Amino acid sequence: MAKSPSRQTCSEALVTSQQASGYIESNGTITRLASFPLFTHESPEQWTTYENMLYSCLRTGDDKAAHFFLQKLALRFGKNDERVMGLRGLYQEAMAEDSSALSQMSREYDEILVEDPTNTPVRKRQITLLRSLSREVDAINALVELLVASPTDIESWAELAELYVSQGLYQQAEYCLEEILLSTPNAWNVHARLGEASEKLMVVIAEGAQNTVKTPSGDLDSELPVPSMEVLRRLSEKATSILAESAQKSRNDQSSGPNDFAFVADMLKSSTKFQER
Predict the structure, then answer these.
(1) 3-state secondary structure the chain
(2) Cα–Cα distance, 20 to 36 (Å, whole number)
(3) What are phi and psi of 142, to 5 degrees?
(4) pLDDT tens digits along 163-222
(5) Is 61 left (phi over 0), alpha (psi -120 to 50) or beta?
(6) Among 44, 46, 42, 49, which Cα is nearest to 2's?
(7) Cα torsion at 49, 183, 9, 161 (round to 10°)?
(8) What region does 31 belong to: left with phi over 0, alpha with psi -120 to 50, or beta?
(9) pLDDT by residue (tens digit) across 229-262?
(10) CB 143 within 8 A of CB 166
(11) C-alpha span between 130 and 108 (Å, rounded)
């Protein structure tokens, strides 16, 4: 069991699941004394092995053996243990016969999370389930809630970035990838993904800039090109000077209300910031 189940090949998972019968024969009696470590000979490696066995058995379709290891873990750590709850959800998802059963599982996850929003294993199972049901928007919302509770979860940031890219939200994906680089600044693969997201974002911006602006008449023959940045800058300078004159007049004109002057002042500030950029 040197490898994590997520890194095992299909053949390695099959070999691991075939070892389950030996573990069941040697530990076949499920007794409540397992809840008391003083009465049993156990080690952390034993329970890690049981969990890995559970994953491998589910992967190879040995549902009976998977249920045995789930019972062992639940008896040792309790049914309300967060990790056990996540493993039970994984088992029930594997047993689901159709999408309606999976949707019911999603509702059960919602009920658990209402009581305990910080239950990370259940939250992650819910996110995986939502993605399998092609409910990407709901998965994004669930990931955002998870990251509010656990803002240093790198895997969740990476998954959220992937979902944003799939939805064409490249700017949001950039933010997620930058959050990962705060914790792992030398992760070259994340730098590569950030470059890809930035490139796609620039393509979207460039395509938007190539679009034409139609006149109010809607006549296709009267389309005008999008003005360049230099033209926009000059227009901004002209607008700034006009706003400055209006502000000066507002100060001198007693009939002008305070709201009018505040509006002009705000517009003047916005225009000045544009020029500075």
Answers:
(1) CCCCHHHCCHHHHHHHHHCHHHHHHHCCCCCHHHHCHHHCCCCHHHHHHHHHHHHHHHHHCCHHHHHHHHHHHHHHHCCCCHHHHHHHHHHHHHHCCCHHHHHHHHHHHHHHHHHCCCCHHHHHHHHHHHHHCCCHHHHHHHHHHHHHHCCCCHHHHHHHHHHHHHCCCHHHHHHHHHHHHHHCCCCHHHHHHHHHHHHHHHHHHHHHHHCCECCCCCCHHHCECCCCHHHHHHHHHHHHHHHHHHHHHHHHCCCCCHHHHHHHHHHHHHHHHHHHC
(2) 24
(3) -65, -40
(4) 999 998 999 999 999 999 999 999 899 999 999 998 888 887 777 666 544 444 444 444
(5) left
(6) 49
(7) 120
(8) beta
(9) 666 666 667 666 666 666 666 566 655 444 444 5
(10) no
(11) 13
User: For residue 85, what are its two tokens?
Assistant: 């709850």
Give the closest residue to 65 by CA, choosing from 19, 8, 103, 100: 19
The answer to whether 145 and 123 are in contact (CB under 8 A) is: yes
| Residues facing 213 on adjacent strands | 224
Single pTM value for the model: 0.64
Q: Which amino acid is at 112?
A: I
Neighbours of 225 (CB within 10 A): 10
CA 52, CA 181: separation in Å to the nearest integer? Answer: 30
Tell me how far apart the alpha carbons of residues 57 and 63 are, in angstroms, rounded to a whole number: 6
- What lies within 8 Å, CB to CB, of 88 at 6+ separation is 70, 74, 79
Q: How far is CA 113 from the centre of its chain?
A: 17
